[in-house]
Amino acid sequence: MGSLSFPVNIHNEDLSCPVCLDIFKDPVILSCCHSFCRECVKDCWKEKENKECPVCKRRYSNDILPPNFTLKNLCESFVQERDQRASEDLCSLHSEKLKLFCLDHQEPVCLVCRDSEKHSDHRFRPIDEAAGQHKKKLQETLEPVKKKLNVFKEVKVKFDQTAEHIQVQARHTERQIKEQFKKLHQFLEEEEEARLCALGGRGAEESEDEGGDGGSEQRDICPCSLSEEEAAEDHSESDTNTHFH
Questions:
Q1: Taking a C-beta distance cutoff of 8 angstroms, is the pair 122, 131 a contact?
Q2: Which of 30, 54, 73, 172 is the most exposed place for a label (fewest CB within 10 A)?
Q3: Residue from 39, 73, 34 nearest 54 by CA
Q4: Residue 88 · residue 96 · CB < 8 Å
Q5: Residue pair 122/104 in contact by the 8 Å Cβ criterion
Q6: How many Cβ atoms sit within 10 Å of the Cβ of residue 29?
Q7: 1-87 falls under which CATH superfamily?
Q8: CA–CA separation, 18 vs 36, rounded Å?
Q9: How far apart are CA 236 and CA 228, in angstroms?
């Protein structure tokens, strides 16, 4: 595979795994479009109860990790070109390859620099060895940060779970309140209907009672009227008899 020519603004960070912060190795891509080293994702999922994206926290139900071939090719080409440029880096003073790293001055030097008065009695390491040591030191420095980040992620997960539980409880309580008020409204409507029916029945009975009393009074009045008429007739007959005698 031929090496690609990368723009100047492409750096390690652009092709680095968000978990290990190193150049992608066997990169995989999740359905959320975030990419990671295959082993990094597996390690993250081993430590967690739920499988989720280490970046956006989207959850996954299976262990399928599709390879990201495009990103893999880019990383391999980038590393190849980076190593080639590193091997071609020359000392600005002697135009020699930078094969050593001065521990006292913390800078890469060539063999001529090592023997010069400027670096007299200085300590040196092969540049590849020094690069490995610096990388290891950087990883050790980042380790506490990564642990704190993991703790923060765990706290966030617990917080999200608690918030979700509260929302579920709130929805459940809301349903209960609505059901109770629905039953209460139904009870009040039935009670209102029963009271109105009872009130209507009582009014009808009172009307019937009033009608019956009026008839009795009329019946009571009629005999009185007849008695008065009979008395008048008797008086008239008495007057007639007196006249003839």
A1: no
A2: 172
A3: 34
A4: no
A5: yes
A6: 16
A7: Zinc/RING finger domain, C3HC4 (zinc finger) (3.30.40.10)
A8: 7
A9: 12
Total residues found in the chain within this entry: 245
CA distances from 245 to 158, 170, 239 (A): 131, 114, 10
- Which token pair is 1? 């595979």
**Residues 6 or more apart whose Cβ sits within 8 Å of residue 244:** none
Choose among 165, 163, 153: nearest CA to 49: 153
Count CB neighbours of 224 within 10 A: 9
pLDDT tens digits, 77-113: 888 887 777 666 788 888 888 889 999 999 999 999 9
Kindly tell me the number of DSSP H helices and DSSP E strands found in the chain. Answer: 4, 7
- Confidence band, pLDDT 50/70/90 cuts, at residue 175: very high
